[in-house]
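Inverse folding, one chain.
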């Protein structure tokens, strides 16, 4: 069984709404409204172990998943959430050893998922126009221990993509249609282009740009996630839900001309 070591991150779990991503260090206390815990007590214990606070409240030390790291990112921008990231990752088909271009980096939430997928031999090249957002993303990626798989690039991706022969290009930015031709040039044959956009207008302009280039398998989807309350005689969808996040458009580069039947 994997045990917790000095310097490891754990997700301290009290309940669904109260979780804390903390670094374990000998002699370090972590204070909550339920009392403080001695993080050093976790050293040598397996993940999942309980940790009892000074007020006798029981926490559990979980091994942080990529989704925990995404949800705990320090944020200066809207971020992508697991509902969209999960689907988007499958569409992109990225895996170990792949080279992926991303824009904009934003707070680096998607960057973390991409970096985790391409390690240990791949690389994420992530473009961001706003240096202060890039700074925050850098902290988030660093905290996740994934910086060696990410090159953060400051600049306007609508002016071009430096990389060639990449496996995938993924966009979450205001003007994706201005990047479609650069993405096509940067992709390897069969490489995947994915764009996330909150509005239909962005999607229409992006798909129009895609249709002017040798891409096939073009598709736009919206994902709706409903959480279910499970309790005796009350099992049903929750009354409150996230109504809209965005649309995901996918296309695959082909070599030579297409008949644009797509
Ligand atoms: C919604 S945020 C991306 C959030 C990111 N996917 C995440 O999960 O944290 C959009 C980002 O795109 C950046 N951006 C907008 N236009 C850009 C451009 N032309 N080149 C590079 N970045 C751009 C913005 O500054 C912003 O940080």
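Residues assigned per position:
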């Amino acid at each position: 069984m994997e045990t917790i070591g000095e310097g490891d991150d754990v997700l301290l779990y009290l309940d669904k709404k109260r979780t804390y991503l903390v670094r374990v260090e000998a002699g370090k206390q972590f204070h909550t409204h339920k009392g403080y815990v001695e993080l050093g007590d976790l050293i040598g214990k397996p993940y999942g172990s309980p940790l009892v606070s000074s007020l006798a409240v029981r926490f559990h030390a979980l091994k942080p998943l990529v989704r925990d790291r995404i949800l705990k990112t320090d944020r200066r921008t809207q971020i992508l959430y697991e509902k969209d990231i999960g689907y988007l990752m499958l569409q992109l088909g990225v895996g170990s050893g792949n080279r992926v271009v991303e824009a904009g980096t934003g707070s680096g939430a998607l960057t973390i998922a991409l970096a985790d997928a391409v390690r240990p031999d791949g690389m994420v090249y992530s473009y961001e126009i706003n240096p202060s957002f890039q700074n925050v993303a850098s902290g988030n990626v660093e905290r996740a221990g994934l910086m060696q798989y990410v090159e953060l690039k400051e600049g306007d991706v609508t002016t071009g993509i430096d990389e060639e022969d990449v496996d995938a290009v993924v966009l979450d930015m205001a003007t994706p249609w201005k990047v479609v031709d650069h993405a096509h040039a940067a992709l390897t044959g069969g490489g995947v282009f994915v764009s996330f956009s909150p509005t239909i207008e962005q999607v229409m302009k992006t798909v129009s740009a895609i249709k002017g280039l040798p891409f096939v398998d073009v598709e736009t989807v919206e994902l709706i996630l409903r959480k279910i309350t499970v309790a005796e005689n009350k099992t049903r969808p929750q009354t409150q839900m996230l109504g809209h996040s965005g649309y995901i458009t996918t296309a695959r580069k082909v070599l030579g001309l297409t008949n644009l039947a797509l």
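The two ends are 50 Å apart (CA to CA). The pocket of S-adenosylmethionine is lined by residues 77-80, 103-104, 106-110, 127-130, 133, 156-158, 172-174 (CB under 6 Å).
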